[in-house]
Design goal:
The protein is built from twelve helices and twelve strands.
Amino acid sequence: MNPDACKLSIVVASRHDDHGGGMLERMRWFIRGLDHQVRQFGMPVELVFVEWNPPEDMTRLHAVLPRPQAGSPLRIRYVTVPESVHRRWRHAEVIPLFQMIAKNVGIRRSRGEFVLCTNIDLLLSDPLCGFLAAGKLDPGAFYRANRCDVPRDILAADSPASALVYASAHVIRRLGDVPWGYGKSFASVRRLKRAMIQWFQPDTRDLIHRLDTDACGDFTLMAKSAWERIRGYPELGLYSIHVDTLGCMAAAACGYRQVVLPPELCTYHIDHDSGWMSMTPAEKLKFSEQRPTLDWMVICESARWMLEHQQPLPVNDAHWGCLGEDFEEQVIGG
């Protein structure tokens, strides 16, 4: 693969601190699954893996995670963002990973025509990989895929292929909308969204209601030029909940068309402790007390402003994603 250009870059962010329990094993499965599928579909992919604020006493991820198999079209670029950069943002002492800022670092350094921002504890379904391999992506659109949570028992699978079979038969919950015509409309979620935004003007209210922002941090795909136009995710010293939502809302405000992929084109997320969807309401309150997060009504007001002005929030400057800064990088495979 030409190291200076590719069709698809996948951007993820993590660190070696065992978040949620068994994180290292979940990351291993993510890379094993991706390597298996790019070989299966003959799909050259650049994986930009941003290791944010790595703990000094832990081995770097590039040394402990699997390497692509010989001949694989997967190329992994590990980009390390040091603690000195992490400390620039407020609440750095209680939030060890600013996930969306880290993804911005990956977006700015990606070389693909299209960039998928996703997470390191999931597998892509085979139909989804087949869609990506076909390469029929519209630069005027942004793409969303459902997230299906599956039990952590999947980690006992003997191969990526068997893990995918297990995942498809053991979905705990599904997050996200489905295209009209598929029957299942997730009516309860839609009613909740509608109730939250009744105070908007009718045209703005309708557009926000139609945006699929559930678990959007697990799959948001658009042209790199679109990411650059919206200036990535807002770079805030807050926990990542709802920051990913602002990225989708900015894309819609800038005129990009949302495409919600069919249900079978989904991701399989490995369920874990301290995951937002697996917490009780009381646990979520305690979690938010320790790690400042965005209020949903602020998100809604921000969306209204962006849609009315047809531009992203004026939060990031031209140097978003630490543009121009030279970070340590290891390149593996490809």
